[in-house]
């Protein structure tokens, strides 16, 4: 077999680094290659990560052809940055890339990238730092400019952003698809202040919760759950709202600094839709919406949520005190189950919940050092100095200390928390946590401060820089994203 076959495969050099993938690929495509005699030439890419079409054909001659099914077998082994690059080589490769993307065959597990912005790159440009290639790619995103938005989360390849009118959008930085989420005025605690022409001029933010369990049957909108002996909600009873402060009024671009905390996007396979979970103030309450909904649905009565995950049709949420609740959103009545009660002696600045690949539910604590931080200065820095991992025993309803991640890693920050295997992602460092800033008051209040971002050794509690010098702007805060080619339907 001619060497250009080899070159065509190795050009997508991740195969050479993943022998198992390479052997699997050879066995899949060899029969097809033996039946085909057309050559494949290696496409050259520029050092800046961009394709340079002018070089194609001038030195290599006419681009030969390969059957699309062979190209798709090869392309299916690549991570998305390489896949997008090879899809730009020629029309035949582009066709194979488009088919692979659109028919749902591409299912390769992705290594997270760090998404950030850079002032020098431009207002509409997002940068992706690849942990596999240790290089940066630049992507132009749709309006409004990414550097003018708040970034409040990323999950399954989607960013959750907030624009300068405090409205939320989903953005896929790879496909460029952008989805508008229900208006902020449909959140329980937000009321619009409208001028004579019907234009929203300001927002009123109410500081109420449903934590106070007083009964007022005349107000069915505010409810409390009634648990059975299995700690499953069987019905709801009305409650009276607990109001902590008088409402505040904010300009349309200021509300996002006082309302939005953290958001997540989860595929809801049973309905062919996506769920967006939003942790928001006052007191970090929880609301959700399905893509295509006209409004947000409030999930009272709990407060102080820090992280969310989704598995087997249940939306899990954890509070800063370690309580874990599981919401079944599939029916007309929302059911909630207490997975774990309040944990004693929680000493965490941030708390996360991760579904591990081997099936356990992990409770992760992050402790930061602020002793040397000058809170009167815009230059102060908080530093992660300890990460503790606990396994949630859902039967005994208690935590068990988890000593070592072995051949797994964590991704923590202002994004969906992840636990990945280094067997599937050999470029990652086993028993380490890759982390970014997620302390919301610090992010909003100290936008120009250096970010607490790096790689944390879980064995010796030593943190290292991800890359030096750091290329990112400090705001919007950088976050991890697992890239996806999936398109989102809103029908």
Automatic annotation (TrEMBL):
It holds the Pfam family Beta-prop_KIB1-4. PROSITE patterns: FBOX (PS50181). Residues 60-109 form the F-box domain. PANTHER family: F-BOX DOMAIN CONTAINING PROTEIN, EXPRESSED (PTHR44586), F-BOX DOMAIN-CONTAINING PROTEIN (PTHR44586:SF23). This is F-box domain-containing protein.
């Amino acid at each position: 077999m001619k060497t250009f076959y080899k070159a065509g495969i190795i050009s997508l050099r991740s195969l050479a680094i993943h022998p198992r993938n390479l052997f699997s690929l050879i066995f899949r495509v060899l029969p097809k290659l033996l039946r085909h005699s057309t050559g494949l030439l290696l496409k050259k890419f520029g050092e800046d990560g961009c394709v340079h079409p002018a070089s194609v054909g001038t030195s290599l001659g006419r681009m030969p052809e390969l059957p699309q099914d062979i190209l798709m077998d090869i392309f299916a082994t690549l991570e998305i940055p390489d896949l997008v690059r090879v899809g730009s080589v020629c029309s035949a490769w582009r066709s194979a890339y488009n088919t692979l993307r659109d028919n749902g065959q591409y299912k390769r597990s992705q290594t997270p990238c760090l998404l950030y912005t850079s002032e020098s790159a431009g207002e509409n440009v997002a940068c992706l730092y690849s942990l596999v290639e240790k290089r940066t790619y630049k992507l132009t995103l749709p309006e409004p400019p990414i550097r003018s938005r708040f970034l409040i989360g990323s999950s399954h390849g989607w960013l959750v952003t907030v624009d300068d009118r405090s409205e939320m959008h989903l953005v896929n930085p790879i496909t460029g698809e952008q989805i508008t989420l229900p208006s902020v005025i449909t959140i329980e605690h937000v009321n619009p202040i409208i001028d004579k022409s019907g234009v929203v001029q300001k927002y009123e933010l109410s500081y109420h919760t449903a934590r106070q369990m007083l009964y007022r049957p005349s107000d069915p909108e505010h409810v409390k759950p009634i648990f059975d002996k299995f700690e499953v909600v069987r019905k709801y009873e009305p409650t009276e709202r607990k109001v902590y402060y008088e409402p505040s009024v904010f300009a349309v671009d200021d509300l996002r600094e006082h309302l939005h905390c953290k958001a997540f996007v989860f595929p809801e396979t049973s309905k062919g839709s996506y769920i967006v979970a939003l942790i928001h103030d006052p007191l970090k309450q929880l609301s959700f919406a399905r893509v295509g909904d006209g409004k947000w649905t409030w999930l009272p009565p709990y407060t102080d949520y820090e992280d969310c995950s989704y598995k087997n049709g249940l939306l899990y949420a954890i509070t800063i005190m370690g309580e874990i609740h599981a919401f079944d959103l599939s029916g007309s009545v929302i059911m909630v189950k207490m997975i774990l009660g309040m944990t004693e002696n929680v000493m965490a600045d941030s708390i996360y919940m991760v579904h591990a690949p081997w099936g356990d539910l992990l409770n992760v604590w992050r402790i930061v050092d602020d002793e040397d931080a000058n809170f009167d200065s815009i230059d102060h820095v908080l530093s992660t100095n300890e990460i503790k991992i606990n396994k949630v025993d859902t039967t005994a309803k208690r935590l068990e200390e988890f000593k070592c991640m072995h051949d797994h890693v964590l991704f923590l920050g202002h994004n969906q928390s992840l636990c990945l295997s280094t067997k599937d992602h050999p470029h990652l460092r086993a028993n380490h946590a890759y982390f970014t800033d997620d302390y919301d008051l610090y992010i909003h209040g100290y936008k120009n401060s250096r970010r607490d971002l790096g790689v944390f050794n879980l064995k010796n509690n030593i943190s290292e820089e991800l890359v030096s010098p750091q290329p990112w702007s400090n705001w919007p805060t950088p976050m991890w994203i697992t890239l996806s080619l999936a398109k989102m339907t809103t029908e």
